[in-house]
Amino acid sequence: MAGAPFDDRDGFIWYDGALVPWRDAKVHVLTHALHYASCVFEGERVYGGLVFKLREHSQRLADSANILGFELPVSVDEVEDATRAVVEANGIVDGYVRPLAWRGSEMMGVAAQGSKIHVAIACWLWPSYFSPEAKLKGLRLAISDWRRPAPDTAPTASKAAGLYMICTLSKHKAEAAGYDDALMFDYRGQVAEATGANIFFVKDGKLHTPKPDCFLDGITRRTVIDLARMHGIEVVERAIQPAEMEGFEQAFLTGTAAEVTPLREIGPYNFEVGTVTKTLMETYENLVRGRLRD
Question: In whole angstroms, what is the distance from residue 277 CA to residue 294 CA?
Fold first, then answer.
């Protein structure tokens, strides 16, 4: 089923309080979220039948909705229960979960305070965002023409659907040119993130990563920072200028979908898949699989 379109699959989706057959989980063409991007979502991983950091993801879904000016019609506890139910109903042992919340079709126009808020949760098999071969030797990233917006021009603290439009444009252009993904700068011209993952660099045994002041402070990002410190690796969160990439030895991405993925190239800059990157890849894998011991 990996190649099947996402509207024509077997299984169940949790939709507004109940598990419904996958093909029956539909919205109207005049849904506000489709026209005005009034939608928030999460991406979660299932490992061994358990959703990794489910509470943090469920809470962020609610927080993202609040930033966009609406409240979920269910509690965070109910989102968690529904997530577990849909994972079990679909028999997912290792896979991906997509919760989302959006404004419905009751009002059409920029203002839609009276629209119903819907919540749905789907899950499916998704073994790896990038191929194992690509991860093994490191990804190649182009540099995007688009920049992450300033926090006073967009709700950058929310995992909002509208913020990903420029990510799609960036990734499509990168893939068309033979790259795996694209690195995006922020509105100041500083290094920000990839199209769907945070970025880290290694120099002299230290980790350097951009401050998430205009893009999401990823849950995987925070997890990897904790794992690095557990290994005694110093982590420096700071503004990073593009020219600094020439002096970094290693680079990798972090994200729920990307997990920990090494890079070998960003535009004109080259990196090795070194010891620090490999250590954090292995430690993260052990953590999510329940093999990490104190």
Answer: 20
Quote the tokens at residue 46: 């299932």
Q: What is the pLDDT of residue 293?
A: 62
Note the pTM of the prediction, 2 decimals: 0.94
The residues that are catalytic are 159
CATH code linked to domain 132-288: 3.20.10.10
Domain-by-domain residue ranges, the chain? 12-124, 132-288
Here the tokens at position 36 are 């005005």
Residues 6+ apart with CB under 8 A from 234: 205, 206, 207
Query: Which of 17, 35, 104, 98 has its CA nearest to residue 61?
Result: 98
CATH class of 12-124: alpha beta
- The span from the CA of 36 to the CA of 160, in Å, is 11
pLDDT tens figures, 3-52: 789 999 999 999 999 999 999 999 999 999 999 999 999 999 999 999 99
User: In DSSP terms, which residues pair with 198 in a beta bridge?
Assistant: 254
